[in-house]
Design a protein that fits this description.
Length: 409
């Protein structure tokens, strides 16, 4: 009998990709990301200002960099560690939460994670089942929608930051989207991408709403250290009081999410943490263990150094970022940010028959990369997002000048 020959490679014989995953976007922050290297390799095209990703141009302070952590001082630095996190770091985080956030969490109620992204994925996996719904205040941090989709849950976008002007409207807007399948309310303050800081009385009302409908609350506070009291929002309550942790109002159902990436310019170290009820963090730890086991030990050591020594560094960075944010907002004709590191611009008056894709192309031709508003919500196809911390201040100001010329501002 002859050989059956090699297996067929026709499309009809290939295993299927999960439809939920196939539906997720592969390029989130800029459709021009694959053209960046080519553009930057040719100096004749002029400088490129990549403001589409929310990173910072800074390095961490000396003492909180990876090269500052020496194995001679930290035995077993390169071995596996506790999947809950380094005990010293957990203890210090618990102390920080009490002193800074007004949250009382025992070490058992803290989980060190691979960035806030890994933490949100872990807790989403702990509480969401296929078909459940996560209410997301929009516009939102782009990856949260995909995190819900990863666990086959539905992301329910709640147009919020550009729609509500008082506490009553905030509650009505969220409540109108609640169904029998709603399981989680995701709140981000200071907001990525709008720069808005949600007032404490709004958060308290939202917490009461979550309690009434028996929802978990994911309180994304990764920009907690970057709030600017003199921002302008037009809301009945301004950000004068600064950032408020939502967990103060509904501790029994709130999982607070933090990151060293934004506060201390440590995105590459991949360290964040969750704080919440022990019963849910125990389940989140299971998911985290199976996805990434634990965050890098070196990163956790730098995070501990940051908590111990980083207050002055944050204060200086915050003031520099505030000044740049104010200048860029004024140049582009929008309100100054109350916090965070982003501006979110309505550009519908500059769209032609090419739509937003054409405007993004025009920006790219002027050397400025910005993120499409659709990455922050389906209803924001006429908006763009930019990070004013992705490059040094003078470079961002130049980028804003170029962007203003494209937008006619």
């Amino acid at each position: 009998m002859g050989s059956a020959g090699p297996p067929s490679t026709t499309s009809s014989s290939r295993p299927e990709i999960a439809p939920g995953t196939a539906a997720m976007p592969g390029v989130i922050y800029s459709p021009f990301a694959d053209r960046m290297a080519e553009r930057m390799a040719d100096p004749s095209d002029g400088p490129l200002f990549p403001l589409h990703v929310g990173d910072t141009w800074r390095d961490p302070f000396v003492g909180a960099r990876s090269e500052d952590i020496r194995s001679a001082l930290h035995p077993r630095l390169h071995a596996y560690g506790d999947t809950r996190g380094l005990p010293d770091l957990i203890e210090r985080v618990s102390q920080k939460l009490a002193e800074k956030n007004g949250l009382r969490h025992s070490p058992e109620e803290v989980l060190i994670t691979a960035g806030a992204t890994g933490g949100l994925a872990a807790v989403a996996g702990a509480v969401l089942s296929p078909g459940d719904e996560m209410l997301i205040l929009a516009p939102f941090w782009p990856l949260i929608r995909g995190i819900a989709q990863s666990f086959r849950a539905r992301s329910i976008e709640v147009p919020f930051f550009d729609r509500v002007s008082c506490r009553r409207e905030a509650i009505e807007q969220v409540e109108s989207r609640i169904t029998a399948r709603s399981r989680v309310l995701y709140v981000s303050t200071p907001s990525n991408p709008t720069g808005r800081v949600i007032p404490g009385d709004w958060l308290e009302a939202l917490a009461n709403l979550a309690r009434h409908h028996d929802l978990w609350v994911f309180s994304d506070e990764v920009y907690e250290d970057y709030h600017y009291p003199h921002g302008a929002s037009g809301c009945e309550s301004s950000a004068i009081g600064g950032h408020v942790s939502m967990g103060r109002f509904a501790p029994e159902r709130t999982i607070s999410v933090y990151s060293f990436s934004k506060s201390y310019a440590m995105a590459g170290q991949r360290v964040g943490y969750l704080a919440g009820p022990e019963r849910v963090l125990a389940e989140a730890r299971k998911i985290a263990t199976h996805i990434y086991y634990h965050p890098p030990i070196v990163g956790q050591r730098t995070a501990l150094a940051a908590l111990e020594e980083g207050d002055d560094w944050i204060a200086n960075a915050r003031e520099e970022d505030r000044a740049v944010g104010v200048d860029v907002a004024e140049r582009l004709g929008v309100a100054s940010p109350e916090g965070g590191t982003f501006l979110f611009l309505d550009v519908r008056d500059r769209l032609d028959e090419r739509g937003l894709a054409g405007l993004l192309e025009d920006c790219f031709e002027r050397g400025v990369l910005v993120a499409p508003g659709t990455s922050c919500g389906e209803e924001y196809g006429e908006w763009i997002r930019l990070s004013y911390t992705a490059a040094p201040g003078d470079a961002v100001r130049e980028a804003a000048r170029r962007l203003a010329s494209v937008l006619g501002r």
